[in-house]
Amino acid sequence: VSGGERKRVSLAETLATRASVVCWDNSTRGLDASTALSFAKSLRVYTDVGGRTTLVTLYQAGESIYELMDKVLVIDDGRMLFQGPAGEAKKYFEDLGYLCPPRQTTADFLTSIADKNARHFQPGREETAPKTPEELERAFRESEHCRRVAEDVEDYERGSRSANNDKHRMFEATVKDSKSKTVIGDSVYTVSFAKQVAACTKRQAWLLWGDRGSFYTKLAIIVANSLIVSSLFYGAGRGTSSAFARGGIVFFSIAFIGWLQFAELLPAIAGRATIERQRVFAFYRPSAVVVARVLLDFPLVLVMTLLFCVPVYFLAQFDVDAAKFFIYTLVVYTVTFCLTTMYRMFASLSPTVDDAVRFVGVVLNIMFILTGYVIPKPALLNDSIWFGWIYFINPVAYGFEALQTNEFFGRQMQCSESQLVPRGPGSDPNYQGCSLPGSTLGSTTVSGPDYLEASFQYSRANLWRNFGIIIAFTVFYLGVTVLAVETVKFKGTGAQSLIFAKGRASKADEERREEGGARAAEEAFEPIGDGQSVFTFKDIHYTVPYGDGERRRRLLDGVCGFVKPGKMIALMGSSGAGKTTLLNTIAQRQKVGVVSGEMLVNGAALGPDFQRGTGFCEQRDIHEGTATIREALEFSALLRQESAVPRADKIAYVDRIVHLLELGDLQHAIISSLTVEQRKRVTIGVELAAKPSLLLFLDEPTSGLDSQSAFSIVRFLRKLSDAGQAIICTIHQPSSDLIEQFDMILALDRGGKTFYFGPVGPNGSVVVDYFARRGFPCPPSRNVAEFILETASSTPSVRDGERVDWNAEWRRSDEHGAVVAEIDRITAERRPPAATDAAQTEFAASTAYQCLLLTKRMFVQHWREPQYVYSRVFVHTIMGIFNGFTFWMLGDDIASMQNRMFSAIILIFFIPPTVVNSVVLKFFQNRELWEDRELPSRTYGWVAFCTANVVCEIPMAVVSATIYWLLWYFPAGYPATASVSGYTYLMVLVWSFFQSSWGQWISAFGPSYSTISNILPFFFVMVAIFNGILVPYDSMPVFWSQWIYFINPTTWFARGVLSAVLPPAAVQCAAAEFARFDPPPGSTCGQYAGRFVDEVAATGYLEDPNATSNCGYCPYSDGGEYMRTLNVYATDKWPSFGILVAFAIANWALVYFFIYTVRIRGWTFGISSVWKQGARVLGRIRGQGKQAESEDV
Q1: Does one domain contain both 646 and 675?
Q2: Are residue 648 and residue 713 in the same domain, yes or no?
Q3: In a domain, 922, yes or no
Q4: Which residues form the ABC transporter domain (predicted)?
Q5: Which of 133, 276, 566, 647 could staple 77 via S-S, CB 3.0–4.6 A?
Q6: pLDDT one-digit tens code per residue, 885-943
């Protein structure tokens, strides 16, 4: 919908409150004049019929709107200058000595009183009339109007205190009757909480359906991951060798969908502003939205859980037992639900998305590490003295125990060949043991419950207790969320303080700039451009696909026109008529749909420098929020003005723009802290600073400005036009003075159809004459712009009993023929005789200069908005401390060896989701600014965009990697030798480069943040499970082990780091880690199993070779033997480093590749076609379903 249509939705929402007192703050901003008048009339009826009190602030209010008001209040600098009947305000100020010029509306006259540059005095009263706010306030307080206001207030208060105040009692009774019977008497809400929840649930369903593409993507990722991961465990067998791998698939089951629900953070925070506004409107309690989301989660999470659990359970060859399957599904469903409520709890407590991602990322990582899989429960509680207690407040840990005990209950595992001790020549089956924990002496079968008890201290008896604990955590998270949304309030979108950058310019510089700007205000502009370029557009049609993509909608229908140097064209029409669409089309900014017609400059096709030679001021004020006003203007001037112009001249021109837009006092203010009006000035200033030589497009530059500011802007545009600038400007509510500043009007009706294009004429005489000759004269006192819109655009015009088709009238008119003839003449006369060889560049500045300025701006962005940097440092600091002290000074037994391995790879398992998500969000924010404003305006190109983003990540990567390594490496007790510690630091550093660049190239390719946030878990899972850690390389199916293992970057990080830190460590098995067996009678342990240790296993050692019973065999004697089971070798060290560096470089290359191919060239790599085909299939299925239903009926 258009901006005007969005505004009308906001107005309708406010009217739906049925409030007795309603305040409308510039509510007609963005509406055309006729729609604004219609709205004001509606307010008049709304106030009269409903007996309501209505307070309105309006900018650029026409006389027709002003006449609808009962009273008017004029304030300046917080002081009341007048309050009284609207019809008496003008006379009051005239009596004070002010003069209202002819054709000036009363509203504009009253606004000008507070503007020393716009007000006029009656001859001879310039010195005696009050001028300052203090003097005007004193004059009012001494006037009869002030006395009447005081009397009115006193009479009202006296009546309110009266015991016979029937109106007050009637009001209370009406309010009571309007409420549901189930609502508490003093509640501000009219319906019960249950009805609020029902309404919010319905709305959440609508929102889901509107963004169903993201949900479908999530479901597709779930199905894909479930099939891929379960295939990795397919055929693993049911023996003891698969016990640890089964723990891996159980861990994946408990974590994956909950991990995927990480994407719920953004909508939970993004919708906060709407919820707060509607809370103020007393529509519903914020907690109703929380409950509504939970209710909608019940079916949605169930669908996701079933799509995941069915393939995983059966492909992973879990027990084919109905009870076990349903328990498995129930626990996965409950844990997912619990984690989703936890995410929303953190969202409700976080002021920004960055904060939420930071906290949730750390908490989720800690939860997964302390689940009991990476570090078994006994080790957590006995050895990890600092953090082991977290196990008891971790719902994922209870879910993991429940699933483990469900899976291994009743299972008897035959000891696998590789775990029999001893085996090979000379071994006797009657005298063998099994190396799996939980085995018994002399038995080659291991009970599932015994294995869980020995390894994890898990018991089947705790299954339903654990389920209840997960439910309790869910209720707790939900309760905290409800409490938080009702009590915790964050900074809203209302009034805020201006924030200024540190290091302001010196006072001398300020004075010099002010003096230069003051002189500039009075000087005429030097000639702009060559004064010869004429832009023509003829028969412009624009259609867009909608619905299933098969249908087309025409938004522009045969629009013609031309823009000559030194001319200002006002583009007018009702809201939704296609004004912005036309601007975007002729400015070459449309990204979808089909554009047809002819657009030429001097009769020649548009060259690559066309967009650089134009300025485009959008409706939306899109800026780099951390920049100051001056920085934004200088950035535009330095990169967009011709490179031949000296830098000093560009800065001087910025000084002039700053003064003319009255931004001198605010030039060092941070843009994100500005008001709407101030942002609009900055938007205009950024485009003016570029000094466009060909055309200046402005989309509603005066919306949100008061009449004097609007006139100041248009007057400034007039000066630009007089200097040779060609200008096309959409304008909604122009006053008579404003419209006279324009040379021509291009008026559009609904559907993008032209109903007038031609001169305005003195006092609008030419355009008025056009309509008068067709039976619709304009009254002498009428605003020409309002007359045009009301006559031809807002309501159907009737002539001789028939509706007038103004587009047909225009096409039949002589004026239309003259326009077409003029376009043809311009094209014929100015068309170059042959192709010119003159160099035309797309950008004014060199690529190197673009990279330099943009990189500098991006560094400043990170400095002034440090949440992004803090998030990265915070995650690496917390995880470094957590990792280092959880695995504090590891020992030399097998459990410590495994912990060394897990501690080394925690960086690649648990930190990437948090880091990559934050990188993706920041990259998308930067990409939005670039794609929406700075690329179309040709401020800088794709190479500069990529380079700046890549370069600015490098310092953060170095700092965060260094912090993590220092806090992890030495506390965990790894070797302090330089060759090992230095190498490990290099690997951590390269991985830090890799993960940030990984998020960037995914963002470069991805269509939206919501889609990418749903896809990211797919990538995380793929790199986490195919590196030979969770599933050893030798146990992988051949299909995966022969390719994906080797193209996985985490494989090479793990092989490199483990090859460095494991070999020096000797292994001394703890008593419980020895595999026990008895030798045959008359033999010692060494005599019976020595050959097995030396030749068959070729690893490990015997506890006591001379023992004659209860022999103990330790599988490993040093770290080298252990790491070979992971397909890691001592020679992997530097090859792994080189390969990981290659991955990081490839990521950076992919950033450039995808930005160019997808964002510049528009390639979709076939994905768009697949998506459209899927949409068509679904559309046909729905259509057939509806047809079948109708036939049944």
Answers
A1: yes
A2: yes
A3: yes
A4: 535-775
A5: 133
A6: 888 888 888 888 888 888 888 888 888 988 998 899 899 999 999 998 899 889 999 99
Structure tokens that stand for 991 in this block: 């991985």
Question: Which runs of E-coded beta strand occur in 189-236?
Answer: none
Going through 1048-1116 in order, the beta strands assigned E by DSSP cover 1075-1077, 1101-1102, 1111-1114
In 658-797, beta strands by DSSP E: 695-699, 726-730, 744-749, 753-759
Number of domains in the chain: 4
d(CA 825, CA 617): 30
135 belongs to a structural domain: yes
- Which among 100, 126, 160 is the end of a domain? 160
pLDDT digits (tens, 9 = 90+) for 572-617: 888 778 888 999 999 988 888 899 999 999 888 888 888 888 889 9
Does residue 19 sit within a domain? yes
Range of the domain at 350: 209-359+468-487
Q: Do 140 and 249 belong to one domain?
A: no
Can you give the pLDDT at residue 794? 53
Q: Please state which of the ranges 89-98, 350-359, 1162-1171 shows the lowest mean pLDDT.
A: 1162-1171
Longest dimension (CA), the chain: 132
User: Contact, 371 vs 251, CB < 8 A?
Assistant: yes
Beta bridge partners of 25: 57
Q: Nearest Cα to 190, choosing from 206, 201, 205, 174?
A: 174
Q: What percent of the chain has pLDDT over 70?
A: 90
Whether residue 475 sits in one domain with residue 565: no
For the ranges 1-5, 421-425, 592-596, 832-836, the lowest mean pLDDT is seen at: 832-836
Could you report the per-residue pLDDT of 25-76, keeping only the tens digit for each?
878 776 777 778 888 888 898 888 888 889 998 877 878 888 999 999 999 9
Q: What is the pLDDT of residue 798?
A: 64
Same domain, 813 and 864: no
**Residues belonging to the chain:** 1193
Alpha helix stretches (DSSP H) within 284-321: 286-315
Q: Report yes or no on 743 lying in a domain.
A: yes
Both 126 and 234 in one domain: the answer is no
Report how far residue 424's alpha carbon sits from residue 199's, in angstroms, rounded to the nearest whole number.
71
Look up the pTM and report it.
0.81
758 DSSP β-pair partners: 745
> With bands split at pLDDT 50, 70 and 90, how would you rate the model's confidence at 521?
very low
At residue 409, φ and ψ (nearest 5 deg) are -65, 130
What 3-state class would DSSP assign to 618? coil
Q: What is the mean pLDDT of residues 968-994?
A: 93
The H-or-E segment that residue 73 falls in is strand 71-76
Contacts for 743 with CB less than 8 Å, ≥ 6 apart: 567, 568, 569, 721, 759, 760
Claim to verify: residue 753 and residue 864 sit in the same structural domain: no
Q: What CATH number corresponds to the domain at position 826?
A: 3.40.50.300
Provide the token pair at 743.
Answer: 């040379």
Cβ neighbours, 10 Å, residue 873: 17
Instruction: Report the distance separating Cα 811 and Cα 442, nearest Å.
Output: 101
The crossing angle, in degrees rounded to 10, of helices 647-660 and 676-689 is 150
Q: How far is CA 734 from CA 30, 40, 570, 766, 1099, in A?
A: 12, 16, 10, 17, 89
Mean pLDDT, the chain, integer: 85
Query: In the listed set 140, 160, 180, which residue is the last one of a domain according to the structure?
Result: 160
| pLDDT, tens digit, 9 for 90 and up, residues 1173-1185 | 665 665 565 555 5
Confidence at residue 866, expressed as pLDDT on a 0 to 100 scale: 86
Taking the C-alpha atoms of 986, 992, 997 and 999 in order, what is their torsion angle to the nearest 10 degrees? 150
